[in-house]
Amino acid sequence: MEDVPEPQRSTLEKLRGMIRAAAPKEATEGISYGMPAFKYRGGLVAYASFKEHCSFFPMNGSMVEKFKDEWAKYETSKGTIRFAVDKPLWAALVKARVAEKGKK
Hints:
Order of helices and strands: HEEEEHEEH
Strand order of the largest sheet: 1-2-3-4-6-5
Structural class: alpha+beta
Shape: globular
Radius of gyration: 13 Å
Distance between the termini: 31 Å
CATH class: Alpha Beta
Strand content: 25-35%
Number of domains: 1
Largest sheet: 6 strands, antiparallel
CATH architecture: Alpha-Beta Complex
Helix content: 25-40%
Number of helices: 3
CATH topology: Aspartate Aminotransferase, domain 1
Protein backbone atom coordinates (compact mmCIF):
# COMPACT_ATOMS: atom_id res chain seq x y z
CA MET A 1 0.00 0.00 0.00
CA GLU A 2 3.03 2.24 -0.04
CA ASP A 3 2.08 3.59 -3.45
CA VAL A 4 -1.49 4.52 -2.41
CA PRO A 5 -1.79 8.25 -1.66
CA GLU A 6 -3.43 9.70 1.43
CA PRO A 7 -6.22 9.78 2.48
CA GLN A 8 -6.99 6.51 0.64
CA ARG A 9 -4.05 4.76 2.32
CA SER A 10 -5.30 5.45 5.84
CA THR A 11 -8.82 4.39 4.88
CA LEU A 12 -7.58 1.11 3.41
CA GLU A 13 -5.38 0.49 6.45
CA LYS A 14 -8.44 0.89 8.71
CA LEU A 15 -10.43 -1.47 6.49
CA ARG A 16 -7.58 -4.00 6.52
CA GLY A 17 -7.55 -3.83 10.33
CA MET A 18 -11.31 -4.45 10.47
CA ILE A 19 -10.97 -7.43 8.16
CA ARG A 20 -8.01 -8.84 10.09
CA ALA A 21 -9.95 -8.48 13.39
CA ALA A 22 -13.04 -10.21 11.97
CA ALA A 23 -11.33 -12.90 9.93
CA PRO A 24 -10.43 -16.30 11.34
CA LYS A 25 -6.79 -16.55 12.35
CA GLU A 26 -6.34 -19.09 9.55
CA ALA A 27 -7.17 -16.44 6.93
CA THR A 28 -4.27 -15.42 4.73
CA GLU A 29 -3.53 -12.18 2.94
CA GLY A 30 -2.57 -11.99 -0.69
CA ILE A 31 -3.42 -10.41 -4.01
CA SER A 32 -6.50 -11.33 -6.00
CA TYR A 33 -7.39 -9.66 -9.30
CA GLY A 34 -4.58 -7.17 -8.60
CA MET A 35 -6.09 -6.08 -5.26
CA PRO A 36 -5.23 -6.79 -1.63
CA ALA A 37 -7.37 -9.72 -0.52
CA PHE A 38 -8.00 -12.12 2.32
CA LYS A 39 -8.52 -15.80 1.67
CA TYR A 40 -10.28 -18.29 3.89
CA ARG A 41 -11.79 -21.39 2.35
CA GLY A 42 -11.31 -19.64 -0.98
CA GLY A 43 -11.72 -15.92 -1.56
CA LEU A 44 -13.01 -14.03 1.47
CA VAL A 45 -12.85 -10.32 0.63
CA ALA A 46 -10.79 -7.85 -1.38
CA TYR A 47 -10.49 -4.07 -1.26
CA ALA A 48 -9.04 -1.25 -3.32
CA SER A 49 -8.90 2.50 -3.69
CA PHE A 50 -9.77 4.60 -6.68
CA LYS A 51 -9.57 8.31 -7.39
CA GLU A 52 -13.03 9.17 -6.03
CA HIS A 53 -13.80 6.27 -3.68
CA CYS A 54 -12.70 3.03 -2.07
CA SER A 55 -14.30 -0.34 -2.73
CA PHE A 56 -14.97 -3.46 -0.72
CA PHE A 57 -15.43 -6.69 -2.65
CA PRO A 58 -17.16 -9.42 -0.60
CA MET A 59 -16.24 -11.96 -3.32
CA ASN A 60 -19.83 -13.16 -3.31
CA GLY A 61 -22.38 -11.25 -5.38
CA SER A 62 -25.29 -12.54 -3.32
CA MET A 63 -23.91 -10.75 -0.23
CA VAL A 64 -24.66 -7.35 -1.75
CA GLU A 65 -28.26 -8.39 -2.43
CA LYS A 66 -28.67 -10.18 0.90
CA PHE A 67 -27.60 -7.12 2.92
CA LYS A 68 -28.98 -4.44 0.62
CA ASP A 69 -30.90 -2.73 3.44
CA GLU A 70 -27.82 -2.53 5.67
CA TRP A 71 -25.73 -1.28 2.77
CA ALA A 72 -28.34 1.18 1.47
CA LYS A 73 -26.21 4.21 2.31
CA TYR A 74 -23.39 2.89 0.11
CA GLU A 75 -23.22 2.76 -3.66
CA THR A 76 -23.28 -0.89 -4.70
CA SER A 77 -23.11 -3.04 -7.77
CA LYS A 78 -23.42 -6.81 -8.09
CA GLY A 79 -20.20 -7.58 -6.21
CA THR A 80 -18.92 -4.25 -4.91
CA ILE A 81 -19.63 -1.81 -2.12
CA ARG A 82 -18.20 1.66 -2.82
CA PHE A 83 -17.62 4.15 -0.05
CA ALA A 84 -16.15 7.60 0.34
CA VAL A 85 -12.65 7.88 1.76
CA ASP A 86 -13.97 9.94 4.67
CA LYS A 87 -16.87 7.52 5.38
CA PRO A 88 -15.36 4.08 5.88
CA LEU A 89 -17.37 0.90 5.93
CA TRP A 90 -19.19 -0.13 9.04
CA ALA A 91 -17.27 -2.95 10.75
CA ALA A 92 -20.41 -5.09 11.12
CA LEU A 93 -20.65 -5.35 7.32
CA VAL A 94 -17.17 -6.82 7.17
CA LYS A 95 -18.06 -9.21 10.01
CA ALA A 96 -21.23 -10.30 8.17
CA ARG A 97 -19.18 -11.46 5.20
CA VAL A 98 -16.73 -13.31 7.40
CA ALA A 99 -19.57 -15.01 9.28
CA GLU A 100 -21.29 -15.95 6.01
CA LYS A 101 -18.09 -17.48 4.64
CA GLY A 102 -17.47 -19.41 7.85
CA LYS A 103 -20.80 -21.25 7.53
CA LYS A 104 -19.75 -23.01 4.34
